[in-house]
Design brief:
Strand content of chain B: under 5%
Order of helices and strands of chain B: HHHH
Shape of chain B: elongated
Low-confidence stretches of chain A: 1-6, 83-88
Number of helices of chain B: 4
Structural class of chain B: mainly alpha
Distance between the termini of chain B: 56 Å
Largest interface: A-B, 28 and 27 residues
Low-confidence stretches of chain B: 1-7
Oligomer: heterodimer
Structural class of chain A: mainly alpha
Number of strands of chain B: 0
Amino acid sequence: MTDTIIRADSQFLAAVEAERPTLIRFARLQLGAVSHVEDVVQETLLAAIEGSERFNKQSSLRTWLIGILRHKIVDALRRSHPRAVSVVETATPEDQWFDESGHWREETGPAYIEWRDPATLAEQQQLLGVLEKCLERLPAAWARVFMLRELQGMDSREICSTLAISESNLNVQLYRARTHLRACLELHWFNCDAARPT
Amino acid sequence: MTETTQRAANDISCREATALISRALEHVLSTDEEILLQRHLVDCGMCRRYKSQLTTLRTLMQELKK
């Protein structure tokens, strides 16, 4: 490993190291704050340094590193015990969202407001920041499934195989993640629309 | 059975409708599921908004990737 670092160009090493915070942020979104995020990012940086000749400079360094990180995240999820990613049911979240007859509870259902598109680039960035906060608050099991689907772009079959879960379990977790995120975005962004300057 | 209870037996709740809306983002629903969902959406503004919000959520996740 020392040899590898000596061989790699020092400018390249510095550029790779500078991307560490971005990679940690990306990995944390998928693995959660308490997981082995630092280890996965470290593995990614080492793989990048060892394979520096494969960086073709057609894509940005960040895009290339995130590509490596995505594989490392999937490896980490595959290594983790299946029980660690299954949901332990206590009370179902659906009971908070719907009444006994299965209809939306007024206080937790979609409010009578329009989800307005961001008016400026800055507003778009703020909205994405709120989304990240909402993602961080997702229960870990839902977050893993949701991120593999929406951030990694895996299809249902790949996710079920990676996490060793059934398709019906996958559907329930995706549904809960989406419903939770919808409510979080509405509460912390779209419902505050009137208070924001346009 | 009265007409009202017959209609109720064929209707789905918001809980069932929203689960179908989420599942439809993964694969095509069966014809029966699609009919039940569309019939529900005609009458339910909250579930129509839910459906549109899930589409927005997916778009925002694409933005987050960039």
